[in-house]
Amino acid sequence: MKKYLLILLLPLISTLSLAQHQVDTSMTFEEYDPESTLVVPGEEITSAKYPFVDIHSHLWRMASMDLEETAREMDSLNMKVLVNLSGRSGETLKAMVDAAEKQTPGRFIVFANIDFDGIDEPGWTEKAVAQLEEDHENGAQGVKIYKNLGLTVLDSKGNRVQTDDPRIDPIWAKAGELEMTVLIHTGEPAVFWEPIDEHNERWLEMKNFPDRHRGDSTRYPSWEVVMQEQWNVFRKHPETTFINAHFGWMANDLARLGKHLDEFPNVYTETAAIIAELGRQPRFAKEFFIKYQ
Questions:
Q1: Domains of the chain: which residue ranges?
Q2: d(CA 175, CA 132)
Q3: Are strands 267-269 and 52-57 parallel, antiparallel or unpaired?
Q4: Residue-level pLDDT at 110
């Protein structure tokens, strides 16, 4: 009798054990954040072997920051120079430049920004060029163009302002004349224009940040149109040096980016926000860097 009782109890014990180790199927994909168990020899590298420049940073409150503390943090990374792309213009920019020169001379570079509000008002172009000249005199060493140009900047009639709008040409030309490098962020990754479905490798990002999706053709032109407008500017202003931000959103197609750089000798690029793209093609990425360094 005892033998039969033991056999009958075994399924119950097994069921209880499974219940104690039940997988939490209610956890969402967004909540899943596993900790790596990988153990490898060596030490964690926290400082670059060679000194480097951070070409893509945003210090919105630079004028009121403790830049000496920031410089010490930079030293710990072997970062020699940091470029603040968020200088804005006028007195705001001047205050940033003055703070950097006073606290940490030689460690920070400030880029000016262009205000496209009122672009269709009489005299806008002349005022914008004059403001750029003033910002240059006040210490701005470059110009940063945000992605809203070509996507969401509208004139007073609600028309999209293209990156290659002729009213902006004098600004590109003046930047070249003043030897101010233009770092320009145009567009987004091309898959932001694709359907948000199981085939889109940025599905999770757009699920969490739906405003990043550009698939509404009534609001946005295609990726190719947006980028072609930028390339038209590069082609039209060969005497101006441009930095095409974020690998020009071609980090997933380095061969195409290489042809882009070959076509435009006045254009450089930088790696902000695209490191993951390089990590999945380490050998080809290494060849690319060796060729275009």
A1: 114-292
A2: 8
A3: unpaired
A4: 99
User: For residue 110, which amino acid is it?
Assistant: V
Residue 56, SS3 per DSSP: strand
Instruction: Tell me which residue of 143, 123, 121 sits closest to 132, measured CA to CA.
Output: 143
Kindly report the backbone phi and psi dihedral angles of residue 56, in degrees, each rounded to the nearest multiple of 5, phi listed first: -135, 85
Residue 160 per-residue DSSP state: B
Q: What is the maximal distance between C-alpha atoms in the chain?
A: 102
Alpha carbon separation from 103 to 63, 81, 228, 265 (Å, rounded): 10, 14, 42, 36
Amino acid at 285: A
Kind and range of the H or E run holding 150 = none
Instruction: Write down the pTM of the prediction.
Output: 0.90
What is the C-alpha to C-alpha distance for residues 79 and 293, in angstroms, rounded to an integer? Answer: 18
Provide the sign of the torsion angle of the four alpha carbons 114, 119, 125, 128, taken in this order: negative
Residue 180 CB contacts under 8 Å (≥ 6 apart), including other chains: 112, 132, 136, 140, 141, 142, 143
Alpha helix segments (H runs only) across 117-222: 124-137, 169-177, 203-208
Which strand (E) or helix (H) includes residue 226?
Answer: helix 223-236
Rounded CA gap, 220 and 222, in Å?
Answer: 7
- What pLDDT, in 10s, does the model give residues 254-292? 999 999 999 999 999 999 999 999 999 999 999 999 999
Helix (H) or strand (E) holding 286: helix 282-292
CA–CA distance, 81 with 74 (Å, rounded to integer) = 8
Q: Which of 262, 253, 263 is nearest to 285 (CA)?
A: 253
**For 108, what's the count of Cα atoms within 13 Å in the CB-facing half-sphere?**
33
- Find residue 228's DSSP bridge partners: none
